[in-house]
Design goal:
The protein is α+β, with helices and mostly antiparallel strands. The protein has ten helices and six strands, in the order αααβββαααβααααββ. It has a domain at about 1-110 and about 150-200. The strands form two sheets. Strands 1-2-3-4 form a four-stranded antiparallel sheet, with helices on one face. Helix 2 runs antiparallel to helix 7, helix 3 (about 65-75) crosses helix 7 and helix 9 crosses helix 10 (about 225-235). The longest helix has 29 residues, at about 1-30. The structure holds zinc ion. Zinc ion binds near residues 101, 165 and 172.
Length: about 260
């Protein structure tokens, strides 16, 4: 029974792939500038943030059958074109119709309040940020994406879907294809999600460095009267102090 099911699925996938490759060849002759999306991984997402994105898709629809169909079409290489712009994605999806379907997914910028909450939450996470720059988000930063109140994964109100097909649902199977493709992209480069929400991971890192610097200076002031004295002088007279010596006044040349 299991063997028959597996064979049926394999044959269906194989037939669909053949069909879409034929359609893609025809479409490419008309539109040579398209960028077909090649699926390289069987699981589509191998990191926790990519898997979390795919699991997150269920919140955008009550009809998970369309998500399943979209996943199948994606695996069978139905995505003829996929382009990510600053706040939206455009995709062309092959299907049963002669003309491919045009999909657009638009992301709302993250609100200032949410972004500020994220910045505060991860203000002291410099070690984690080193990993992030290598596209390795630590497990302890799950909330940065998935938190319902302040995560970067958009809520239903923060994302909109549009497809040229006749399916009048919010999220059709062609849109699902593009969303799974985005999952693969995010899996490879999670910083992409920041850009789609109108913010930069570099701002988050910069804020963290600023907060850590403030904390270190605070500790130094409490522990060392000398540092306290130098810091106060620096603040008050706007001069640089190094190893206890005044090197240069701001805006003035050296005087002997
Ligand atoms: Zn559609």
């Amino acid at each position: 029974m299991l063997t028959t099911t597996w064979h049926s699925r394999y044959n269906l996938n194989s037939r669909l792939k053949t069909k879409f490759r034929r359609k893609l060849n025809t479409f490419q002759k008309k539109c040579p500038n398209i960028t077909p999306f090649m699926v390289k991984t069987k699981d589509m997402a191998s990191n926790w943030w990519g898997k979390a994105w795919n699991a997150n898709l269920k919140k955008y629809t009550f009809n998970t059958i369309r998500l399943e169909k979209g996943k199948l079409l994606f695996k069978c290489e139905a995505l003829a074109d996929f382009k990510i712009n600053s706040d939206h994605i455009k995709a062309i999806v092959l299907g049963s119709n002669i003309n491919p379907y045009k999909v657009k997914i638009t992301f709302e910028p993250i609100s200032e309040t949410k972004w500020s909450n994220i910045q505060t939450l991860y203000a002291g996470s410099l070690e984690s940020f080193e990993k992030i720059l290598d596209n390795q988000f630590p497990n302890e930063m799950t909330d940065i994406f998935t938190n319902k109140l302040s995560g970067l994964f958009p809520s239903q109100k923060e994302i909109s879907f549009n497809c040229s097909c006749s399916d009048r649902v919010n999220l059709c199977k062609h849109t699902a294809v593009a969303l799974y493709a985005l999952g693969v992209k995010i899996d490879n480069d999670p910083k992409l999600l920041f850009e789609l929400r109108g913010v930069s991971i570099l701002d988050l890192i910069s804020k963290s460095i600023h907060e850590q610097r403030k904390n270190i200076l605070k500790k130094a002031r409490n522990k060392s009267p000398k540092v306290l004295k130098d810091t106060n002088l620096s603040d008050i007279f706007n001069i640089e102090i190094q190893q206890g010596r005044s090197l240069q006044s701001s805006g003035n040349s050296n005087q002997h």
